[in-house]
Write a structure and sequence with these properties.
Blueprint: H1 19-25, H2 33-44, H3 46-60, H4 64-73, H5 75-78, H6 80-97, H7 102-116, H8 122-143, H9 150-166, H10 176-190, H11 195-210, H12 217-227, H13 230-236, H14 243-260, H15 308-311
Length: 315
């Protein structure tokens, strides 16, 4: 049984770069998975986890059954920034406070309320959950200042398995390797081009680009294409990035990781550890957890995308 997460102590000395790594090694990857995940995502690799989870969500839009629903809701056409903010903040609240904490339970209620409105297959839900485990593993192994330890890999699996169960996701594979095999098989079968992929993917690239000054926005789209594997890129209908751009992006990320080896350990978590943490573009005045989440489905949405109860107005 998972234990309620204990408060994470501050690193005692700026020169002790391996402090958190030793602490992780002293914990149990199953029983202490919440604390390990919080250290890994909030102290050791906050930038890498943020970028890799962005890429993980983005790559799920390569699946036509997922992109078609998102396209039908219109969220990406009118509220792309809000949808991004809400997703990031809800997941950060759960990680920072624990899935069984008051804020964690409130965040999960918001997530379940959103998903409960729509007809989403169990396989699609399992697949999206799997990307949260394995895309960060792949990213950090390539670009992080060190590779993830086995404790961190297993803790991420156990953490998201418990989050998934609280989201009502059934039949989550029981081991790290089995869940990875499910993800790989799902992608082989389901990742393929669709017009809805292209629309949702294009809107997401536009969102990423909007975070940069106008003169460099075209480079943002190029950078995204440089990070995608061929299967994902083709599923979006994106042109290949030039070889020089792929090399430049990869070298920049590797260089960033090497530079971080020289930095002191973080004394405070970068997760949403308190209500006064920095806000996101869609919430310049801050946010309340209960207010996060997609708007109710539009009245003119095709009922095929709605759960029967939601379509009847009883959800």
């Amino acid at each position: 049984m998972p234990r309620h997460p204990a408060p994470v102590p501050q690193a005692p000395h700026r020169a002790d770069r391996r402090y958190w790594l030793r602490r992780i090694a002293a914990l149990d990857p199953e029983a202490d998975h919440q604390e390990i995940y919080r250290i890994s995502a909030g102290h050791e690799f906050p930038w890498d986890y943020t970028r890799s989870l962005e890429l993980a969500l983005f790559k799920t839009y390569c699946v036509p059954s997922i992109s078609a629903l998102l396209d039908a809701t219109g969220e990406f056409a009118v509220r792309a920034q809000k949808r991004y903010d809400d997703t990031v903040l809800l997941m950060a609240e759960i990680a920072a406070h624990g899935y069984d904490s008051p804020r964690g339970r409130e965040s999960l209620r918001s997530i379940n309320r959103i998903h409960g409105r729509f007809a989403i297959s169990d396989d699609d839900m399992r697949y999206v959950l799997s990307t949260f485990v394995y895309e960060p593993v792949d990213w950090i192994d390539r670009y992080g200042w060190r590779r993830l330890t086995r404790h961190e890999r297993l803790a991420a699996f156990h953490y998201y398995s418990e989050v998934g169960r609280r989201m009502g996701i059934r039949d989550i594979p029981p081991t790290f390797d089995a869940f990875a095999a499910f993800k790989a098989a799902y992608e082989r079968e389901h990742v393929r081009f669709a017009e809805s992929n292209a629309r949702v993917g294009g809107a997401t690239v536009d969102l990423f680009a909007s975070w940069f000054p106008a003169p460099v926005r075209p480079l943002a789209g190029l950078g995204v294409r440089a990070l995608l594997d061929d299967r994902s890129r083709e599923a979006f209908g994106f042109a290949p990035a030039p070889a020089w751009a792929v090399r430049a992006v990869q070298r920049a990320l590797v260089a960033r990781g090497r530079l971080e080896t020289q930095l002191p350990p973080r004394r405070t978590s970068r997760l949403a550890a308190d209500p006064g943490n920095r806000t996101y573009p869609g919430y310049p005045q801050g946010y309340a957890v209960a207010g996060l989440g997609a708007e109710p489905p539009a009245a003119d949405i095709d009922p095929v995308w709605l759960r029967r109860k939601a379509a009847a107005g009883t959800h």
